[in-house]
Design a protein that fits this description.
This protein is an alpha+beta fold. The protein has 3 helices and 7 strands. The longest helix has 20 residues. Bound molecules: coenzyme A. Keywords: Hydrolase.
Amino acid sequence: MDLAYPVERSKTTQTRLVLPPDTNHLQTIFGGKVLSYIDEIAALTAMKHCNHAVVTASIDSVDFLSSATVGDALYLEAFVASTGRTSMEIYVKVHSNNLLTGEEKLTTESFLTMVAVDEYGKPVPVPKIIPSSEEEKRLFETAAARKENRKNRGLIGRDKSKK
Ligand SMILES: CC(C)(COP(=O)(O)OP(=O)(O)OC[C@H]1O[C@@H](n2cnc3c(N)ncnc32)[C@H](O)[C@@H]1OP(=O)(O)O)[C@@H](O)C(=O)NCCC(=O)NCCS
């Protein structure tokens, strides 16, 4: 597909509040809860980019860098880092903010692969991206190395008979 859109067009942000049911006995948020927020914002971003339904093909990496505590705000930001023929690599970062002190920390970084699909679940081509900020360009330029890592993990190009 020759169509290309600026990364900014589908960039998505969300704010969440860390609530008691989402935390462990240390009052810090469960990783799985953060992951569900990440999966949702990645899907929204991908759908905004390609204007199709999408499925999560893989959560390629997730790094929990610091914890967030009950009462903190979570600021999620997601954008398309690179595209394939039918897949979109989405980068998500999550900052926590202690609303009482104003302290803000990067808590989580993640890369996910979302695939655009038609009404039968069959992959369909997606537009390319036009990165503009330094961060967008850096992630775009390093996408091939991350793709190679995914291949080495055996997640791409695996023997379909073993599905
Ligand atoms: C993702 C899915 C649509 C791929 O279907 P498929 O028949 O393997 O399609 P293809 O082999 O043509 O691959 C389509 C694209 O997905 C990518 N892909 C497939 N599996 C992948 C994986 N595990 N990780 C990363 N990318 C993957 C391919 O590289 C290809 O990208 P490209 O077109 O940009 O080159 C299919 O495996 C699926 O529906 N999976 C379940 C998704 C789901 O339900 N997710 C919710 C959580 S369970």
